[in-house]
Amino acid sequence: MAGTTAALLISDLPELGSLNRKQIARLIGLAPTNRDSGTLRGKRTIGGGRVRIRNGLYMPTVTALNHNPRIKAFYTRLVENGKPKMVALVAAMRKLLIILNTMVKEGKKWEANMINF
């Protein structure tokens, strides 16, 4: 992860490592929100939260699709199962955020053979 992204996470996300995966995804705005009303079932969308961090995670996730086998396999599986590419990219962003959150929480460094998050 680039130094710029690390600096952004350190400065704008002091909660990193102290929240669970659902809470951190909701805080950043990467958790899907439903648009349901009565019997109408709308599309799930993301939004709200800390837009600056969400925007800052975009390019590191695109880079991870090329260089991180776990993120790439996750993204490819979603696209092959019929998800739109942008939906799969947002899911990969959430996956990367959860991995980073768990690393900070457990005090671990990045390893290529980390367990599934």
UniProtKB/TrEMBL annotation:
Pfam families: Transposase_20. This is Transposase IS116/IS110/IS902 family protein. It comes from the Bacteria. It comes from Gimesia panareensis. Residues 3-75 form the Transposase IS116/IS110/IS902 C-terminal domain. One of its GO terms (molecular function) is DNA binding. GO terms for biological process: DNA transposition. InterPro entries: Transpos_IS110 (IPR047650), Transposase_20 (IPR003346). The lineage of its organism: Bacteria, Pseudomonadati, Planctomycetota, Planctomycetia, Planctomycetales.
